[in-house]
Design a protein that fits this description.
single chain, 247 residues, alpha/beta, five-stranded parallel β-sheet, two-stranded antiparallel ribbon, 8 helices, 7 strands, 9% strand
């Protein structure tokens, strides 16, 4: 009896409901590992050599410009006696533009936001103020950039992200909360900070404090399934803005 190939094993696992929410599949198969004809392999190799460096450069450029927008707000504008409200609006406007450039470099030619009125919690609450917390599914690290291109939120990040060049400075500037999941004490502390931050934003929705972006499933999925929610996003008991990412 012939031994099944690695790809056939992966395909079988992708149909198992225990693993299905976490298996990514596209035109190139499960995890992009589907065997391809030689011309396709050559095409991908050529694109990897010629296009990938350009895309990487554009992505880094967008992140650097977003970082510089944060630095201008923090260091230059106070010297010019520019109001705090205008400084926050400056970073919000230019930060979102530069993040969109970074997304373009990653291959996001466009991002569409579709509003479903019958699921719009903000409309049900009859308010147009910015919700203090955004809840969304999580398909990968680029989800954060997608949300930043729209609402420039803070989020709960892994401890150590604040030390990463460029990205770390942006995360500090927007007020991210840092936690190490493996250490219960830091996770509990992050949960308390998250609850307090949401409550503070709810008290003053017009403040420059950014809303919190939370992934209540607590893990990444392929966007086709819904996993059990964690309670962190809802502990404060305030208005939240629900979104779903799909590709």
């Amino acid at each position: 009896m012939a031994k099944p190939s690695l790809y056939s094993v992966l395909e079988t696992q992708s149909r198992d409901l225990r693993f299905a929410p976490f298996v990514h599949q596209d035109a190139y198969g499960v995890w992009g590992l589907k065997p391809q004809p030689l011309p396709e392999i050559i095409l991908k190799l050529v694109l990897g050599i010629l296009v990938a460096p350009l895309k990487a450069t554009l992505t880094v450029l967008g992140l650097v410009l977003a970082c510089n927008a944060c630095r201008v707000e923090k260091y230059l504008m106070p010297v010019l006696s520019i109001s705090k409200e205008y400084r926050a609006a400056w970073t919000l406007y230019w930060g979102k533009i530069w993040i969109r450039i970074a997304l373009f470099g990653l291959g996001f030619l466009s991002v569409s936001w579709i509003k479903l009125d019958h699921l719009d919690i903000r409309k049900q609450a009859e308010t147009e103020t910015e919700a203090p917390v955004i809840v969304s599914n999580h398909m990968g690290w680029s989800d954060i950039l997608v949300h930043m291109s729209r609402s420039w939120p803070a989020f709960v990040a892994k401890e150590g992200i604040d030390k990463v060049p460029i990205v770390g400075y942006i995360s500090q500037h927007i007020g991210c909360i840092y936690a190490m999941r493996a250490i219960k004490e830091t996770s509990k502390s992050a949960a308390v900070q998250l609850k307090d931050r949401i409550a503070a934003k709810a008290i003053d929705p017009t403040s420059s404090v950014r809303p919190m972006l939370v992934f209540p499933e607590g893990t990444t999925t392929n966007g086709r399934y819904l996993c059990k929610f964690k309670t962190g996003a809802f502990l404060a008991g305030h208005l939240y803005d629900p979104w779903s990412c799909t590709s």
